[in-house]
């Protein structure tokens, strides 16, 4: 009896300690490249991003067909804290201001993410031949689905899978540098000044992920 209680107590302690070790960390300021691919193999977008981890601001700019054969040319400026974003089209000089319904994005671990596991890809036996990551998972809000995010020990998100009923995506971050190289990219361009907040049509969900659907 005592042994069982003691064992249970130890197990609880172990689990608690285990959980304490895995609080979602928050990422750094970053500049880099991001690619988005559907799990059917279609390359949706490749572009550059700038992320301010303090102000929770993101700029993502992609380019149709450059450098890969991609289908989406996007220019997005997202303010996750405020829950709004701008869709910018410098070609036709238009800018739309919209409300974000879902604040998930592949540059930081959501606060309510659940720790899944630690994994090393490649070989941890030789330096620089293996990459150790923590996997975090959680469900999507507003649509049925879930995500699985791989984050380095230093809290840099490497890749994120989004699974929904209809499609699945793989987002990958590459050539990341731990600084904001061009702070102007996170400033609302004059093109967008004074734009009214557009109504979200019934049944529409706006999020970073939805821009690629
Ligand atoms: C991240 O960028 C923001 C905005 O430029 C800046 O205020 C903040 O100090 C930066 N944080 C770090 C850790 O460099
Ligand atoms: C598209 O990509 C090419 C090559 O990387 C670059 O030279 C060009 O400026 C980009 N265009 C836009 C609109 O970003
Ligand atoms: C580019 O993608 C389109 C649509 O996915 C496809 O029809 C076309 O053949 C591709 N072009 C090249 C050069 O791969
Ligand atoms: C600008 O172009 C986009 C797509 O290329 C289109 O959705 C939008 O309505 C256009 N805006 C204006 C003001 O023409």
Q: Which key features would you list for this structure?
A:
single chain; 213 residues; mainly beta; outer membrane lipoprotein receptor (LolB), chain A; eleven-stranded antiparallel β-sheet; 1 helix; 11 strands; 9% helix; globular; binds 2-acetamido-2-deoxy-beta-D-glucopyranose
How would you summarize what this structure contains?
The protein is mainly beta and 213 residues long. Helices cover 9% and strands 41% of the residues.
Provide an overview of this structure.
A hairpin with a 4-residue loop joins strand 9 (145-152) and strand 10 (157-164). It is built from 1 helix and 11 strands; from the N terminus they run H-E-E-E-E-E-E-E-E-E-E-E. It has an 11-stranded antiparallel β-sheet with strand order 6-5-4-3-2-1-11-10-9-8-7, with no helix packed on it. It has a single domain (2-212), classed as Lipoprotein localisation LolA/LolB/LppX (outer membrane lipoprotein receptor (LolB), chain A, Clam). 9% of the residues lie in helices and 41% in strands. Bound molecules: 2-acetamido-2-deoxy-beta-D-glucopyranose (4 copies). The site of one 2-acetamido-2-deoxy-beta-D-glucopyranose has 6 residues, from loops. One 2-acetamido-2-deoxy-beta-D-glucopyranose (NAG) is lined by residues 63, 66-67.
């Amino acid at each position: 009896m005592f042994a069982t209680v003691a064992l249970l107590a130890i197990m609880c302690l172990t689990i608690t300690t285990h959980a304490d070790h895995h609080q979602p960390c928050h990422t750094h300021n970053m500049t880099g490249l991001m690619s988005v691919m559907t799990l059917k193999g279609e390359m949706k977008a490749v572009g550059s991003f700038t992320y301010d981890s303090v102000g929770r601001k993101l700029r993502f700019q992609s380019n149709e067909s450059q450098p890969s054969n991609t289908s989406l040319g996007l220019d997005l400026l997202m303010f996750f804290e405020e829950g709004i974003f701008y869709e910018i089209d410098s070609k036709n000089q238009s800018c739309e201001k919209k409300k974000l319904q879902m604040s998930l994005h592949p540059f930081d671990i959501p606060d309510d993410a659940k720790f899944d596991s630690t994994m090393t890809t490649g070989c941890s036996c030789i330096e620089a031949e293996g990459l150790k990551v923590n996997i975090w998972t959680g469900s999507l809000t507003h649509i049925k689905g879930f995500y699985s995010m791989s984050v380095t020990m230093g809290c840099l998100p490497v890749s994120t899978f989004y699974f929904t009923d209809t499609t699945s995506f793989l987002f990958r971050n590459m050539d990341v540098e731990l600084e904001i190289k061009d702070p102007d990219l996170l400033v609302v361009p004059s093109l967008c000044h004074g734009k009214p907040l557009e109504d979200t049509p019934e049944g529409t969900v706006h999020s970073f992920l939805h821009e690629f659907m």
